Amino acid sequence: MNLTVEDMVDFARGAAFLGAGGGGDPYCGRLFAQQMMREYGVPKVVDADDVPDAAACFIVAMLGAPTVTIEKLMDGKDADLVIDTMEQVTGRKVEYILPAEVGGINSTLPIAIAARRGLPVIDADGMGRAFPEIHMVTYHVYGVPISPVVIANDHMESVVVRSASSKSAEDISRAVAMRMGLSVMISAYPMTGADVKRTAVRNTLSLAHGIGRAIAQGRHGDGPVDSLLDYLRTSAYYNKCAVIFDGKIVDLLRETTHGFSIGRVVLEALDGGGRRMDVRFQNEHLIARDETGLRAIVPDLICMVDRETAEPITTEGLKYGQRLKIIGVSAPPSLRTSEALACFGPQAFGLAETFEPIEKLLAL
Amino acid sequence: MNLTVEDMVDFARGAAFLGAGGGGDPYCGRLFAQQMMREYGVPKVVDADDVPDAAACFIVAMLGAPTVTIEKLMDGKDADLVIDTMEQVTGRKVEYILPAEVGGINSTLPIAIAARRGLPVIDADGMGRAFPEIHMVTYHVYGVPISPVVIANDHMESVVVRSASSKSAEDISRAVAMRMGLSVMISAYPMTGADVKRTAVRNTLSLAHGIGRAIAQGRHGDGPVDSLLDYLRTSAYYNKCAVIFDGKIVDLLRETTHGFSIGRVVLEALDGGGRRMDVRFQNEHLIARDETGLRAIVPDLICMVDRETAEPITTEGLKYGQRLKIIGVSAPPSLRTSEALACFGPQAFGLAETFEPIEKLLAL
Engineered SS bond to A244: which of A54, A328, A363, B11, CB 3.0-4.6 Å? Predict the structure, then answer.
């Protein structure tokens, strides 16, 4: 697959959808990727199967609260510093750029940096969506060590963290990120092609592009939400999906605290029946409940889109009175194993509910 | 000069005095140094003049709040990790261990680690006392870059911070230290012998030993406080000194917050006249005032000792009802320059008062 400069509009829209409310507004990230692609050329997007087993694959991602991230523009020098430092500390030259998450800014950023460095980017990621913490990746779940973690900011400051514990490395790195301005570049889990093949969620860049294109095409045809659902049903991972609510926002609480955007949003149905849905988030939406009980829960995706255009809405874009459809989507199978649920299932976010697949909750 | 295992008792007492209330209780640090000296042999203590200009000199120090530091024992593996990591990132093999501060634990630690590594330790430091922040050293004041900063803890976690800004490196490192348990090993300001000769406060290990010995000798003679003052008056830096208060503690406020021990202590004179002295501290004592006004102010040393034995009392050892003498001591000249005062003078601690040398305040 190749992504052109023009494809990035659809791609960023699809990535925003897969962000499940988090991952940051992809608008700035899309502009940055397009600028890098125009300046340095379009990067090759390669299938994980085509990456040699011994190849050095480096992640590059932004870490921070989306509410801060959208206020900072990118210029790529901090990403260069992260990659150069990772090369120094691992003693390996980077051969492939690997996305950490396909949701939000961190899906467009690896494409931008691959363009900038003249490297291929792998059509895969570690989440198949977005998650708020560094260790919430399939790379971690399936045994790739997190260290060294490299962090840099646009003041050309860098930090290298080494710990045997993913959770501890995450804690230290987030403390560093908060001190460095809560919007920093990061690389972690340096790995080989063999590691990628064993642990990554495959083809997610292609899927993000397909999702964004389906929404755009639906706007000229049968309606964007239907077009989106039709596309998801044909996909390898996201094929169990449904609109779980159609309503407007009647209550919204959102705080930037402890390095996260944390809050809840309540919607009321537009059909006048007074039904309500309550959704809680920590950067990403975690749990959706209505009067009948649980409707969708992490790691399955809870995505909010404009009810007319199906434009994905991130948590920092939520507003009182907004009219939205909430779409529940099945997570990729490697996110639903017991090891995976221990890392980013409901209990990892302090929820009391246990994971139930959306197809079971909704009898799809 | 050489320090024997037995000398460490006097040395640690002198270092506690020069800590000016901070630097941590030297008791554990002294035991650790003695253990290392017994196990690996006594290290050479060399004059800065005898260090070759090109020699690689590495600092090793503990960073943390004394209230936490005294609750954690040392085993040296974290210091090894700090030094090994500093060697990796600088590409130089350490040749000399250099103390960061002569006050408290960070005076005995370099001796312990020099013994452990079979290296000489330089008879000098970057403060001639203790200070609460990493950049508050003459190394920084006189132009040695702080980066890379290496931090490690006893879980064998390490962090390397690089920044062009000393203040920013300090802020990031303290955030890391807080996350890593508020008692970590650190190395920074890697420098050459020429840098040491240009920037260090010389002969301070010898002076700490002399101070501790003078107190001990006074206990069998004319009285330890007089013996201490007599010795200080013969020293190169600390020769302006006086007992500025003799009283008991009637009020004490002490908090561990923002990574520091912060507070104030009020003493009332023992002569029944009701005179009071108010001393404020941030790890170290910063300012001493009585009814007549300012009596001593940072960077001059404000040291509290038991009024009978002259045993130095650190801020975490202060207790209601304790009977103390407060001794004001002139700081080394290189701590009193305008560049130095900008770094660790009264304004650096948020005080409104400007620096006045103790010899002027007390008309010595």
Answer: A328
Beta strand pairing call for B61-64 and B260-269: unpaired
First to last CA, chain A: 32
The answer on pLDDT for B67 being more than 70 is no
Rg (C-alpha) for chain A, rounded Å, is 19
Partnered with residue A247 across adjacent β-strands are A269, A324
Rounded Cα distance, B103 and B345, in Å? 17
Question: Cβ separation of A164 and B172 shorter than 8 Å?
Answer: no
ipTM of the complex: 0.81
Interchain pair B161, A156: CB under 8 A: no
Query: Given this model, what pLDDT does residue B70 score?
Result: 55
The pair of three-digit structure tokens given for residue A148, joined into one six-digit string: 């060294």
Q: Write out the two tokens for B173.
A: 């490192």
Instruction: Measure Cα distances from A134 to A59, A131, B173, B266 in Å.
Output: 11, 8, 20, 48
Mutate to test the interface with B, among A179, A180, A187 (most CBs of B within 10 A): A179
Number of CB atoms found within 10 A of residue A251's CB: 12
What's the Cα-to-Cα distance from B167 to each of A161, B22, B106, B162, B219, rounded to whole Å? 20, 20, 20, 12, 43
The CA distance from B96 to B58, in Å, is 6
Q: Cβ B164–A178 below 8 Å, yes or no?
A: no
Contacts of A169 in chain B (CB under 8 A): 157
- Judging contacts by C-beta atoms under 8 Å, the chain A residues touching residue B161 are 157-159
Burial class (CB in 10 A: 0-12, 13-18, 19+), B258: exposed
Q: To the nearest 10°, the Cα dihedral for B268, B274, B278, B283?
A: 0
Cβ of A156 and B164 within 8 Å?
yes
> 3-class SS at B239?
coil
Instruction: For CA atoms A120, A126, A132, A134, give the dihedral sign.
Output: negative
Give the closest of A156, A162, A176 to B157, CB-based.
A162
Q: Which residues of A touch B86 (CB under 8 A)?
A: none
Q: Are residues B155 and A175, on separate chains, in Cβ contact within 8 Å? A: no
Using CB atoms within 10 A of its CB, is residue A269 exposed (0-12), middle (13-18) or buried (19+)?
A: middle
With a threshold of 0.95, does the pTM exceed it? no
Residues B175, A179: C-beta atoms closer than 8 Å: yes
CA distance linking residue B15 with residue B314, whole number of Å = 11
Best to test chain A binding among B147, B157, B182 (most A CBs inside 10 Å): B157
Cross-chain CB nearest to A180 (options B155, B159, B172): B172
Q: What is the pLDDT of residues A260-283, one digit of tens each?
A: 789 999 999 998 889 999 999 998
Cross-chain residue pair B157–A168, CB shorter than 8 Å: yes
Report the pLDDT value the prediction gives residue B96, as an integer from 0 to 100. 98
Residue located via tokens 């009024």: B307
Give Cα separations from A84 to A87, A89, A193 (angstroms).
5, 9, 19
- Band of pLDDT at residue A257, cut at 50, 70 and 90: confident
Q: Which domains does chain A have, with CATH numbers?
A: 7-202 (3.40.1610.10), 237-361 (2.40.390.10)
Residues in chain A with CB shorter than 8 Å from the CB of B154 are none
In this prediction, residues A16-30 reach a mean pLDDT of 88
